[in-house]
Specification:
By secondary structure, the protein is α+β, with helices and mostly antiparallel strands. It has 10 helices and 9 strands.
Length: 336
């Protein structure tokens, strides 16, 4: 891994920081999260147009920029500095990688270009609250988290070659506004249980979407109720082993992106703290001149830099097929 950024990566970082600084002040963020979409749609259009944000890691063949996970992490770090509410995580770090990993050539050609252009947003929906399980972030994802043939979860049935979905998914990132949903559902009943992925249009009849109240308003979530909803099977074949692998690979990427986002937030908090201790005076001198404050800020600085290194490595590893490190990077970044 080369730790130095390329000229293109520096330009992505510089452009994003410039846009975010102008458009994502505290008041802007508060206003954006209270809109129906949960984010500033005009800002999202700008990010898509100037940086190609939703298609950063989408191949040029499908209308993307043709970069990789490391560029996604750099973008997430800049968005994290202002806690920018956007469909970036759900669209670029969850849905697009899954389409690339599990979709057929025809599905990729049809679905990825409008996502890369910012014309459509997308997300991943899994039964209940099993997202971290599905992405193999909290253990093996080969279990019955999608329903296992029992009541609950999301069930898929086929009749005359058409698939229909029944069930519910909670805490779906940007699920209330996404134009395209990738839904994990259970097929085959109890005897031939398997998990498969399906494509569902956001305006499909029978789909009920309810935005939820979240502790973090910048991370919009929704409950999806699927009542006999028409769906298209993502990929082909009868074996779900590829689905588990695709979800696990996407989980590694998403964890690296989240780690980078947390690093951006931590670095901005440190920057603002340093500026404050230079101005705040006590006993006739700036508190930043006190040795105890200097030592504490030095420790914080080391923690943030270590978390950044771990996040960058995790993103690089996700693209290079190296030993994964996203779980450790995410834990370290969140602590920082």
């Amino acid at each position: 891994m080369d730790a130095a950024c390329t000229a293109e990566q520096d330009e992505i970082r510089r452009t994003l920081r410039e846009i975010v600084a102008k458009r994502c002040g505290p008041d802007d963020v508060r206003a954006a999260v209270r809109t129906r979409a949960g984010h500033d749609t005009a800002l999202w259009d700008t990010l898509a147009g100037r940086v190609g944000l939703p298609g950063l890691a989408v191949p040029e063949t499908y209308g993307g920029v043709g970069c990789g996970p490391l560029e996604l992490a750099l973008a997430a770090e800049e968005l994290g500095r202002a806690l920018t509410p956007s469909p970036f995580l759900a669209t670029a770090a969850l849905a697009a990688p899954l389409l690339l990993a599990a979709g057929t050539p025809a599905q990729r050609a049809a679905l990825l270009p409008p996502i890369a252009a910012g014309e459509r947003t997308a997300t991943l929906a899994v039964p209940g609250t099993a997202l971290t399980t599905a992405l193999a972030l909290t253990g093996d994802n080969h279990g019955d988290w999608a329903g296992g043939g029992r009541a609950g979860g999301i069930q898929a049935t086929a009749a005359d070659g058409a698939w229909r979905l029944y069930g519910q998914a909670d805490q779906v990132l940007d699920g209330h506004s996404a134009d395209l949903l990738l839904v994990a559902a259970h097929t085959g009943g109890f005897a031939r249980s398997r998990t498969r992925l399906f494509v569902v249009r956001g305006d499909a009849p029978g789909l009920v979407r309810t935005r939820l109240t979240a502790l973090d308003e910048t991370r919009a979530q929704a409950r999806l109720e699927l009542r006999d909803v028409a769906a298209e099977l993502l990929g082909e074949g009868e074996v779900d082993e590829g689905v588990a692998e695709a979800l696990a690979g996407t989980g590694e990427l998403a964890a690296a992106v989240l780690a980078a986002e947390a690093v951006g937030a931590a670095d901005q908090a440190l920057t603002r703290t340093v500026a404050y201790v230079k101005e705040r005076e006590q006993f006739g001198r700036a508190i930043g001149s006190f040795q105890a404050v200097k030592h504490r800020l030095a420790d914080v600085y080391v923690g943030v830099q270590a978390a950044r290194s771990a996040a960058y490595y995790a993103a690089w590893a996700a693209g290079a097929g190296a030993e994964p490190g996203a779980g450790v990077a995410l834990a370290q970044a969140l602590e920082a």
